[in-house]
Every structure is written in C-alpha cells, then in structure tokens.
Amino acid sequence: MTSATLRSVSFVMPxxxxxRYLRTAVESIFEQKYSGPVEVVLALGPSTDKTNAxxxxxxxxxxxxxxxxxxxxxxxxxxxxxxxxxxAKASNDVVIRVDAHSKLSNGYAELAVQILNATGxxxxxxxxxxxxxxxxxSAVAWAYMSRFGLGGGAFHVGAAAGPADSVYLGxxxxxxxxxxGGFDESILRGQDWQLNLRLREAGHTxxxxxxxxxxxxxxxxxxxxxxxxxxxxxxxxxxVRQKPGKANLRYFAPPLLVLLSAAGIVLGVLGLxxxxxxxxxxxxxxxxxxxSAYLLCVALIAVTAAAKPKIxxxxxxxxxxxxxxPTMHIWWGAGFLTSYLPWPTKK
Length: 347
Fold this sequence. Notes:
- By secondary structure, the chain is α/β, with parallel strands linked by helices.
- It has two domains: 3-218, Spore Coat Polysaccharide Biosynthesis Protein SpsA, Chain A (Alpha-Beta Complex); 245-338, no CATH class.
- The protein is 48% helix and 14% strand.
- It is built from 13 helices and nine strands.
- Strands 1, 2, 3, 4, 5, 6, 7, 8 and 9 form a nine-stranded mixed β-sheet that branches.
- Helix 1 (22-30) links the parallel strand 1 (9-15) and strand 2 (38-44).
- 45% of the residues are buried.
C-alpha cells in the first residue's frame, strides 16, 4: 500500500466509566465531516455506570443517521486491550485513536490523513489542548501544558512539525499497527510511548504537527489525580528499566525530588530532635532545604503563571496550583521509585 492510497478511516476508542464524556467524544468524531469512508469502533470495558447503555444508544442513533458505529467487548478493561480489540474490529486503512475525555479539533482527521500521505509516517499526532471547568481541573489543565508541570514534551507545550519520539493519541497506518503487533497489553500506562518506540525501532517515522489539536479534560479532583500520576510514574519506571538508554532525563526529576525531600525531612527531624535535647546538630536542620526550595518555586510559579488559551488563572485556580503541581511531581516520582522495588510489575 502506498501513502497516496490511504483514505478510509476507523476511529477507535477504549471506553470505561465514561458516561459524562462519551457522547461528546463520539459526536465530535462525526462533526469532523471527513470526506472519505468513516467508521467508529468503541471497545467497551466492564463499566459500572451508564456508559455501555449510552454506547448502545449511540449505535442506534448512528444507524438512523447513516453513521457506522460498532461495539466490541474489552473484558480486561485496560486501555491497551481495548485499543487492540478495536483495531482488530476496524476495517479501514487509517486508525485514529480517540479518548473519551477528548474532543478532536475541526478538520483533525482530514489534516492528519493528508500529513500521513505527505510524510509517509506510520503515526502522526499533535497537541493535547487540556481544558478545565472548575478551579482544580483548570489548574491541572494549566500544568499539563506547562514545562513546570509535565516537563515540556512537544505534544504538551508545542514544537515545530517534524519527527518525534511520541505524540498524543495518534493517527496510524493500520497495516503497520498490525505488523508490529499493536499495543503491548502487559503495560497499563505509557503504552503510547512504548508503541511509538517500537515503531521507530522498526524503521518507521512518528510525526508531530502542532496544527493537530485534541481537547482533553484532565482529572477534576485530588484523589484521582494522585492515583493517575502514581500509576503513570510506576509504569514509566517499568519502561525505563526495559529501555534505560531511551529515557529522557526529565523522567528522573520527580523521583530525585522525592528522594531529596524524603532524606531531607529525615535529617531535618533529627536536627530538631538533637536541638531539643541540647545537642549540637544545627546543620542537620538544613535537610529541610530541598523541600522548602521546591515549595517556594511552586509558590512563585503559581503567582507569576501566565494564562493559557481557554484557561482563566483566577485566584482560585492559582491557589489550586499549590496542590496540583506537588501532587503531579511527588506522586509521579513515588510511583517511579516504587517500580524499582523487588515485587511483581503488574498491579
């Protein structure tokens, strides 16, 4: 198959407990008004809310409107398992991954297929444009798109169009996905990075283009954000263990922060205890310095942060950054370090 023959498109979406966002995500697909053949494949996990009922309704509504929507079971409930099940069901030349928390920008599919054909890449993608509603979610969205939040990856903060290590979601040549065996189902998070690494190792190109934008709704409360980042850090650590030479140096900043802060707190407490007992150990109290310096930096970032498109950094949102940034960094770092402990890698 030559790049010029790519035209038909399959949108694939793993879905689990997404009653709030599923309809919007599916409707955004058909709002694309793509000029070639289109199908949507939803991989339904074992949801405990109304997600599956909404999916059935969307299938019925799509049929009456001439829209092809099909469902496939994802009994594992994992993202990788759902993607592979949907890809196996898909019948078109191009596979466009869509997340239920995402909304594609106008013309996304048309432009992505043009870029696939023009570059010969195996996968193309663009910017994750995070958006929030209440203050906490808006703070998370700001952090996603800031170098102070996730470290400055191209699909978070932008870059010039060109070859990349990884991209957000992705628009793939289906035959190449099948050729390399799809997503690794043993990986619960970070599977995109690992897949794109395998594509590059197989001699294919992963291409970033900032004109491709996807709106993303991040976690909206502290507990879900902490869990997400701990899990993400854990699986990133697993991937780094497998491919240490491929790891970006920014992956090591959060675990280093956790180690320095934890060691510093221990030393500082020992220093305070010694001081209370009239022993001469004042230097130990300097152990509080790393964590104190970090928190001071967080405060400066929260106060001086510039607003981003669709994110109003009002006083409540800036205050939320005091919780959001440490949660992202410390829980990610703790997860990363936990992955190096001697116990089974699957969670």
